[in-house]
TrEMBL record:
<dbReference type="InterPro" id="IPR029058">
    <property type="entry name" value="AB_hydrolase_fold"/>
</dbReference>
<protein>
    <submittedName>
        <fullName>Alpha/beta fold hydrolase</fullName>
    </submittedName>
</protein>
<dbReference type="GO" id="GO:0080030">
    <property type="term" value="F:methyl indole-3-acetate esterase activity"/>
</dbReference>
<dbReference type="InterPro" id="IPR000073">
    <property type="entry name" value="AB_hydrolase_1"/>
</dbReference>
<dbReference type="InterPro" id="IPR045889">
    <property type="entry name" value="MES/HNL"/>
</dbReference>
<dbReference type="Pfam" id="PF12697">
    <property type="entry name" value="Abhydrolase_6"/>
</dbReference>
<keyword id="KW-0378">Hydrolase</keyword>
<feature type="domain" description="AB hydrolase-1">
    <location>
        <begin position="4"/>
        <end position="227"/>
    </location>
</feature>
<dbReference type="GO" id="GO:0080032">
    <property type="term" value="F:methyl jasmonate esterase activity"/>
</dbReference>
Length: 235
């Protein structure tokens, strides 16, 4: 049995794992999700949100070692958490997520991708400190292959995303390197180009790289298939 801790991506919250958690539980695992600061039911103000506060929230939620799953933007805070406390993490699993690279910020990595499918949907706040996703475009970028009604469920819960964590580099060292890691590429992703997911993992051992034929939200599009794959990786 694995102990999964699920970390959401930009603008999302623990709510996005709604369908996956029961699938993992049915396979005999423990699974839970948290809201990062400023997401879901956490009311931290945009001005107080940092990449470090994300990592702190993750580490505070871990009582016994976990298989830590980071989705999309969540790849950065789970990596930082692993660098700070590798003893708390059995394995990192990146789910169509950004894997920190050198001193690059997440925003720089996004711009390094061959194209920018998410940017037309981004609505920036006037002060430049946060952004939201145009609700009329969430199906196109996040949920195009998900069950009918998914975007309606999500649009009432998607929140503003602080920019500061995405403009902060995440240098990694020996602590991070000591933690086993796996990657799940989503090959019909319309948020992070699949080609860039391949680029991020092209030098990884083949046994640690997996693929799903879904878009950016496999936890809605194929929660059963995702749970099965996560279970296999954890074993």
């Amino acid at each position: 049995m694995a102990n999964f801790l699920l970390i959401h991506g930009s603008c999302h919250g623990a709510w996005c794992w709604r369908d996956l958690i029961p699938e993992l539980t049915a396979l005999g695992h423990r699974a839970r999700a948290i809201d990062l600061p400023g997401h879901g039911s956490d009311l931290t103000s945009i001005a107080d949100i940092t990449l470090q506060s994300y990592a702190d929230a993750i580490l505070s939620a871990i009582d016994t070692p976990v298989t830590l799953v980071g989705h999309s933007m969540g790849g950065y805070p789970v990596s930082r958490a692993a660098e700070q406390a590798p003893e708390k993490i059995d394995r990192l699993i990146y789910l169509c997520a950004y894997v920190p690279k050198g001193d690059m910020t997440l925003a720089e990595m996004r711009r390094e991708a061959p194209y920018q499918p998410l940017m037309p949907a981004v609505i920036r706040a006037e002060d430049g400190k946060s952004f939201r996703i145009d609700p009329s475009m969430t199906r196109d970028v996040f949920y195009h292959d998900c069950p009918e009604g998914t975007e309606c469920y999500a649009n009432t819960r998607l929140c503003a995303q602080a920019v500061a964590p995405q403009e902060t580099p995440c240098p990694l060292g020996a602590n991070y390197a000591s933690v086993p890691r796996s990657y799940i590429r989503c090959m019909d992703d319309r948020t992070i180009p699949p080609e860039y997911q391949v680029t991020m993992t092209e030098d990884w051992p083949a046994a640690d790289v997996h693929e799903m034929p879904t878009g950016h939200s496999p936890f809605f599009a194929d929660p059963g298939g995702l749970a099965t794959l996560l279970s296999q990786i954890a074993r």
